[in-house]
Each structure stands twice: as structure tokens, then as C-alpha cells.
Amino acid sequence: MFGLGGGSTPQVSSQQKLQAAEAELDMVTGMFNQLVNQCHRKCINKAYNESDVTKQEAICLDRCVSKYFETNLQVGENMQKLGQSGAFMGRQ
Amino acid sequence: MDQLNIKEQQEFQTIVEQKQMKDFMNLYSNLVSRCFDDCVNDFTSANLTTKENSCLAKCSEKFLKHSERIGQRFQEQKYVSTF
Q1: Closest residue of B to A69, CA-based?
Q2: Treating both helix axes as pointing N-terminal to C-terminal, what angle do A14-43 and A55-91 enclose, rounded to 10 degrees?
Q3: Domain ranges in chain A?
Q4: Which residues of B touch A67 (CB under 8 A)?
Q5: Which fold has domain A12-90?
Q6: ipTM surpassing 0.90, yes or no?
């Protein structure tokens, strides 16, 4: 039926590619900014007794980042599960 | 994700630079707010006290070092999850 030449994959326009790249950049930057703010709140002592990050604070920060990424995955999975059960309920 | 060709990469680089500038401005105002909130609480004078100035200096430096560390850990995590 499609006797014309050309690939079977649709051509993604330049603009679409740039928009997708920009969206990904925004997502990553957004996540990073959240991480900076929240881990500062959870780990850094506001008395500012010194200008360096203490050893204890550093350990807290490392763990904070790790847990944040894990949380990201976990919540994503939870949302998927909730979405699936929601869809089934909708069909009935 | 589709790879960008040279021309698209250049265009994207312009977008990235604009965002970096905007991000830096946000960082700056965020830092001012944060350090003001944490350090400046003595309104018996209209000028910053020595204690407050000292606190501001530490606050700023600490935040930047904190941000740097987060950045390092973030990079490590990001590459793990991509593969």
C-alpha cells in the first residue's frame, strides 16, 4: 500500500528534538534544585559555626542524595501501580 | 532520545546558556533570602552587626560548598540510573 520510498519511522522535526532536549534539561535542573534546597534543610546546621561543610553534614548530604533518588523511583512505581488499578476500575 | 545534529547542538547550547544565566540569578536571590532568614534577626539597629556579617559570610560559603557536594553526588547517581 505504501509504495513510496523512505523509512518506516516518522521524521522527528528539529524543533521537536530541541523541545524534547529542553524538557529533559528542565526536569534534571528542577530535580537538582529541589535536592539542593531540601537536603540543605535536612542536613545543614543553621547556626553556621563554620564556613565548611562538617564531616557529619557531608555524610548526611551523601545519604540525602541517595535517598532522594530512591524516593524518586519508589514514588514513580507507586504512581504506576495506582494508575493501573485506576484504569481497571474505569473500564468496569 | 534522538541525537541532535551539529546545527541543533549549537541551537541547544544557546538555550542551555540562557537557562544557566537564569539559574544563576535564581541561585543568587535564593541565597540572599536564605542567609537573611538564618542570620539576620537583630533589629535594634538599621545596620548589620559584626555577628550578622560573620554569619552571612559563613552562610554563603557553606551553601556553595554544600551545593558543590550535592552536584558531585548527583552526577554519580544520574549516570547510574541512565544505564
Answers
A1: B77
A2: 130
A3: 12-90
A4: none
A5: Helix Hairpins (1.10.287)
A6: no
